[in-house]
Specification:
By secondary structure, the chain is of the alpha+beta class. It has helices at residues 2-23, 29-43, 166-171, 222-228, 250-253, 320-330, and strands at residues 24-28, 50-54, 57-62, 70-74, 81-84, 93-98, 104-111, 114-129, 132-137, 172-176, 184-188, 197-201, 204-207, 232-234, 244-247, 268-269, 275-283, 287-294, 303-306. 19% of the residues lie in helices and 32% in strands. It is globular.
Length: 346
């Protein structure tokens, strides 16, 4: 009888070990990124989240078990997440920032979620056991340059203006626009979901009311002013924050060989846009900038458009190209628009 009991117990333990093993699933590359994104966007309950203030936005702190890795999810997951295997809050700790595609990543040392030093990488494998994820990443290439938090300022782009953003490299590209009278435009390189980040908008950070031409005695015509401000957009911090704008000099904004650090400035206007500008607070290198997010599901190869927010009825002093588009679209109607952004690519 005792031998039979041990046999039954052994079978019971074996079955439960198999069940436990079955609960662990591993995914690689893009499948791994999709499974993590699905978990973050649809499976985590509000009870499992603790709100944490993160500069201009909020993060959700998620820790499924006491010994499990910690997640700090930005913008409900649409602006990426920080992942720390070490559960202890220390001054500098190793971690990973996963971009909104949950495939592109920066791995390194972080202090209060600010990158101290790190390298670009990509998610290699993600293994899940219940709600606990363990992640592994591609080896760092010897040629991979070190990265650190380097936000733009009124005199610096923060990064080399001719650098390329790895998230954008996978998501968007600049090509000849399909729009009549337009030059270049921004296009999707992969399928994206509604709400997903498409591209970033960075440049020089200036006070919106400051003069871009101090001590210059020449007076510009209205059209010349419009051309000078072609790549100027409000940094939408909200509240009573200082009025700040992102500005790219027009000779650089119009030429990707001179400025390619971010590409959202290449997007064209539409009164029926498929994307919109939003504040993006979690870029691991650039920090708080602007971004474009999709308003609908989009396939690869589609031109991305936004409504620039100009209002010809309320503010008649608009670029000539915009006046023509306005009249063509609204006719004799009094159209309305959100005047938050001031930017053009036509």
């Amino acid at each position: 009888m005792r031998g039979m009991r041990w046999g039954i117990l052994f079978i019971w333990v074996s079955i439960n070990m198999c069940r436990t093993e079955q609960q662990k699933q591993c995914f690689k590359h893009e499948e791994a990124s999709w499974e993590i994104k699905k978990w973050i966007l649809t499976e985590i309950s509000d009870e499992d989240k603790t709100k944490v203030r993160f500069y201009e936005t909020d993060m959700s702190f998620v820790k499924p078990q006491a010994s499990a890795p910690s997640w700090y999810i930005v913008g409900d997951g649409w602006q990426g997440s920080y992942y720390y295997e070490d559960s202890h809050e220390i001054a500098e700790r190793p971690g990973v920032y996963l971009f909104p595609d949950y495939l592109t990543a920066v791995i390194g040392l972080f202090r209060d979620h600010v990158l101290v030093t790190g390298h670009m990488t990509r998610l290699y494998e993600a293994c899940r056991e219940n709600h606990v994820w363990t992640l592994s990443f591609d080896p760092i290439a010897a040629s991979s340059p070190p990265l650190t938090y380097s936000p733009p300022s009124h005199y610096s782009f923060g990064v080399s203006p001719t650098s390329t953003d790895p998230y954008e490299m996978r998501t968007v590209e600049v090509k000849r626009s399909a729009k009549e009278d337009a030059n270049q435009g921004l296009f999707t390189k992969r399928s994206v979901m509604s709400g997903e980040v498409l591209a970033f908008y960075s440049g020089l950070i200036i006070n919106c009311d400051s003069s871009l031409r101090p001590l210059d005695r020449r007076e510009l015509t209205d059209e010349e002013e419009h051309k000078r401000n072609a790549y100027n957009i409000a940094l939408d911090l909200g509240g009573e924050e200082e009025s700040l704008c992102i500005d790219i000099p027009p000779d650089m904004g119009g030429n990707v060989s001179k400025y390619s650090a971010t590409l959202a400035h290449k997007v064209n206007h539409s009164f029926e846009p498929n994307s919109e500008f939003v504040l993006f607070s979690a870029h691991p290198v650039l920090g708080t900038i602007m971004a474009i997010t999709a308003l609908e599901d989009m396939e690869a190869g589609l031109e991305i458009t936004v409504n620039y927010g100009y209002n010809f009825t309320a503010e008649p002093d608009q670029p000539e190209w915009f006046k023509l588009l306005w009249i063509d679209y609204y006719g004799d109607q009094e159209g309305t628009g959100d005047t938050r952004e001031e930017h053009q690519e036509l």
